[in-house]
């Protein structure tokens, strides 16, 4: 469905000089600052997958999504989405994808939500009958009925995000890009968004690329993640594999009689009862627990390793 | 009392520099405008024996260049600023400062004007050359009428700022004001050319003190007792505007406080 | 063809939505129209005041000048009415609004044009048409057709310059000042017989920035004054076509620059 090969994006900006004559120098000299936002990224995503595209701030996630949608032209490399090159065939590509940017609404700010949805229906040539059906489904899935008539600028962030999701899926695109859709939302709203994504994927076999740095999103939705940092792919594969491959060892946490807590690493392959017995022989234990490694720990470790 | 106002003036000046590329283009546009007027008027005058309204072509060109320079430097900025700050609610910071709101705005405008003068400095010789301006015989009269005219201009701008507290939208009003004031200031035609009722209207409005009156004093079209009378009327306008501003401000301030509460 | 019909239909839908949004700021809308009329009005008021004292400018009578002015104003209004939102392009780029536009399956320029209707310019159109009709010299049917074509061509000339300059905003250049200046030249210098400005300026206003082709050149044709022009008469007769050619060129520049659009950092 989506094929990306050695994708690279270099941003070029005229170098800005400081000082009183700075602007003039900026205008006259042809010096540029270059910044490589995406640096040789390759991956393939098949139909119906939900992939978490993960990375810290400034990793190049949004830039990748913008190239996938055809907003930006890649500096080099290849993108194919459903057999099309997005930037060359932008309009055809636009019909096949729904996009939500968590930071910026795609809705018409001054108009009631319903007007925005109608306009989206018009822009994507959705026939009236199908539009009514889609709208009904969106309202049910996302609970839009309460604020359909409210101007978008008066919606809460959670409501607005639900409106954006509806606008992105109204025309049933086979592909959905979500760029930090849960950023700034409260727990309830986050949950609603996640449920909607899961439901859309289950019902319509929609391919979803989900950009986030909220690991809870990923754990709730994705089987596969692509981890990037500084524009490069650090890991691409299943979450479970990631945890096994990179997991820090499990830990045994014991509470001693004198209120002291100590942790012991459980080396791979060593039977736990044996370790407990050994610890118990040396210390008076009051309580003990085994701590499983979590995704967060795993990812922190990968980033730390890539720094070196 | 003085320190915050000086700060405000500095901000106004910096504002001018922040948009310098736009300002530079508008300086170029100013030079083009002076050139246009020069060519058009030269063509109009060609082949005429007597000078209409007793104004020689040289005096007329000098007049137009001056009037345009003056209008450029004194371009009101505070209605825009006030509009923006009222809409975004940041006006509350201005209102909560111990120095009054109107003095702050006036200081901002003064800083902006000073910045404009600095930016304009390189263009002044060009304008003087294109406009063939020679030294005046009434330097004191020119300085006096211009300074008082500037005060009137700032007070009118303040009036528009205050109106913004009611309408909350002064973007279009200030544009309209700018156009009307430029036209009636006589930046394209001296007011003495305005025919009939238009001439009477232009003469009655205060806009002429920002352009026509000082420039006409400079080129000698107004002289002697006329200068004295102009200064007196300017002082009268300032007093009247001060009264109006004071009255309206009291109400506007009240309105803002209610809105905020 | 079906594409064009679809684009027009969507243009209209989007435009209506934009108007509904703008109607929430009614007072500003009304004053905006007044300001538009005042701006163009003060330009003509200048001519009127001057002609009160002087019978002719560069050998042109008040009536001829009024006709020239009418042609220029009508052309200008025909350009601004659909293209007024181009003025805000710098802002659209800086605020990332263009991302939104590029996500939709519709020509980006059509979407941008549909963001706003230059209602303020309705006053210009009216004023221009009135001047044009009042000052219209006795013309045959062929000349009337030429006049209509010339007004549309003039609108396209202005639109072309505006679009080409605005394209630079896609590279995050600050184009506002330059565009305001070009606009100023069009509206201030376009309404006079160019011969007034002298050889060099006339040359620049013909061949560097094609201000002359908006109204002066075609008006000279209609007023039988092609002898004064600095272009050969056949070129003057073909002037309406220049607008089409320039606009096509400007559209190519625009499309190329769109490829270089860099979006915003967030
Ligand atoms: N339009 C742009 N111009 C210049 N630099 C940009 C632009 N967009 C993004 N960048 C830079 O590219 C890098 C990646 O940005 P982005 O893709 O937005 O990161 P993410 O979405 O992962 O936080 C950042 O360093 C950012 O500053
Ligand atoms: Mg991002």
TrEMBL record, chain C:
Keyword Transmembrane: yes
Domain of life: Bacteria
Transmembrane segments: 29-51, 71-93, 114-136, 142-170, 191-215, 235-254
InterPro entries the record matches: ABC-2_transporter-like
Keywords attached to this entry: Membrane, Transmembrane, Transmembrane helix
Family matches, as Pfam families: ABC2_membrane_6
Identification of the protein by name: ABC transporter permease
């Amino acid at each position: 469905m989506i094929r990306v090969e050695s994708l690279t994006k270099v941003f070029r900006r005229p170098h800005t000089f400081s000082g009183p004559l700075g602007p003039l120098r900026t205008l006259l000299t042809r010096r540029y600052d270059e910044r490589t936002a995406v640096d040789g990224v390759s991956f393939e995503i098949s139909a119906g997958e939900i992939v978490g595209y993960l990375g810290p701030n400034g990793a190049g996630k949004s830039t990748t999504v913008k190239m996938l949608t055809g907003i930006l032209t890649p500096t080099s490399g290849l993108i194919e989405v459903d057999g099309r090159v997005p930037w060359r065939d932008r309009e055809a590509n636009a019909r096949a994808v729904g996009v939500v940017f968590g930071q910026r609404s795609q809705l018409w700010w001054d108009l009631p939500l319903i007007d925005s949805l109608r306009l989206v229906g018009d822009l994507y040539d959705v026939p009236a009958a199908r539009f009514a059906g889609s709208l009904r489904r969106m309202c049910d899935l996302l609970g839009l009925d309460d604020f359909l008539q409210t101007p978008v600028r008066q919606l809460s962030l959670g409501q607005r995000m639900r409106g954006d999701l509806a606008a992105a899926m109204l025309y049933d695109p086979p592909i959905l890009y979500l760029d930090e859709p849960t950023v700034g939302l409260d727990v309830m709203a986050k949950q609603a968004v996640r449920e909607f994504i899961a439901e859309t994927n289950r019902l319509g076999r929609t391919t979803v690329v989900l950009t986030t740095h909220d690991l809870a999103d990923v754990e709730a939705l994705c089987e596969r993640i692509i981890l990037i940092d500084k524009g490069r792919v650090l890991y691409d594969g299943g979450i479970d594999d990631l945890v096994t491959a990179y997991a820090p060892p499990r830990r045994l946490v014991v509470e001693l009689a004198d209120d002291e807590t100590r942790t012991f690493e459980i080396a791979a392959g060593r039977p736990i009862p044996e370790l407990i017995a050994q610890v118990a022989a040396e210390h008076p234990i009051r309580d003990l627990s085994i701590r499983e490694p979590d995704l967060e720990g795993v990812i922190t470790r990968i980033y730390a390793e890539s720094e070196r | 009392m003085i320190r915050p106002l000086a700060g405000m003036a500095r901000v106004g000046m910096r504002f001018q520099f922040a948009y310098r590329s736009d300002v530079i283009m508008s300086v170029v546009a100013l030079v083009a405008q002076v050139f246009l007027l020069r060519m058009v008027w030269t063509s109009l005058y060609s082949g005429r024996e007597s000078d209409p309204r007793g104004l020689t072509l040289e005096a007329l060109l000098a007049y137009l260049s001056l009037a345009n320079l003056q209008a450029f430097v004194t371009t009101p900025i505070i209605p825009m600023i006030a509009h923006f700050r009222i809409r975004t609610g940041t006006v509350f910071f201005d209102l909560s400062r111990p120095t009054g709101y109107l003095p702050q705005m006036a200081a901002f405008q003064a800083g902006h004007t000073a910045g404009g003068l600095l930016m304009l400095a390189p263009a002044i010789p060009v304008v003087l050359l294109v406009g063939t301006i020679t030294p005046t015989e009434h330097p004191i009269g020119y300085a006096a009428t211009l300074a008082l005219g500037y005060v009137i201009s700032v007070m009118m701008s303040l009036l528009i700022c205050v109106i913004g507290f009611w309408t909350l939208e002064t973007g279009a009003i200030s544009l309209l004001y700018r156009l009307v004031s430029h036209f009636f200031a006589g930046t394209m035609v001296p007011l003495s050319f305005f025919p009939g009722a238009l001439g009477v209207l232009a003469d009655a409005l205060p806009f002429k003190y920002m352009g026509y009156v000082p420039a006409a004093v400079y080129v000698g079209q107004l002289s002697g007792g006329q200068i004295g009378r102009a200064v007196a009327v300017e002082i009268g306008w300032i007093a009247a505007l001060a009264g109006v501003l004071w009255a309206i401000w009291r109400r506007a301030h009240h309105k803002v406080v209610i809105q905020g509460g | 063809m079906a594409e064009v019909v679809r684009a027009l239909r969507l243009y209209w839908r989007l435009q209506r939505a934009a108007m509904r949004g703008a109607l929430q700021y009614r007072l500003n809308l009304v004053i905006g129209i007044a300001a538009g009329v005042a701006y163009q009005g003060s330009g003509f008021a200048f001519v009127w005041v001057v002609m009160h004292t002087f019978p002719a400018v560069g050998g042109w009578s008040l009536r001829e000048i009024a006709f020239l002015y009418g042609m220029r104003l009508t052309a200008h209004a025909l350009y601004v009415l659909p293209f007024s939102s181009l003025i805000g392009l710098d802002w659209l780029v800086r605020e990332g609004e263009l991302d939104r536009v590029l996500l939709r399956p519709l020509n980006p320029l059509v979407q941008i044009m549909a963001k706003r209707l230059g209602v303020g310019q309705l006053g210009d159109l009216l004023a221009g048409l009135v001047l044009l009709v009042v000052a219209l010299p006795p013309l045959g049917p062929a000349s009337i057709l030429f006049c209509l074509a010339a007004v549309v061509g003039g609108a396209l000339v202005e639109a072309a310059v505006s679009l080409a300059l605005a394209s630079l905003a896609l590279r995050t250049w600050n184009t506002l000042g330059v565009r305001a200046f070009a606009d100023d030249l069009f509206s201030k210098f376009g309404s006079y017989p160019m011969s007034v400005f002298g050889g060099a300026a006339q040359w620049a206003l013909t061949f560097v920035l094609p201000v002359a082709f908006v109204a002066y050149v075609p008006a000279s044709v209609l007023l039988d004054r092609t002898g004064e022009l600095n272009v050969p008469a056949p070129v003057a007769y073909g002037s309406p076509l220049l607008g089409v050619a320039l606009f096509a060129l400007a559209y190519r520049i625009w499309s190329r620059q769109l490829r270089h659009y860099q979006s915003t950092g967030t």
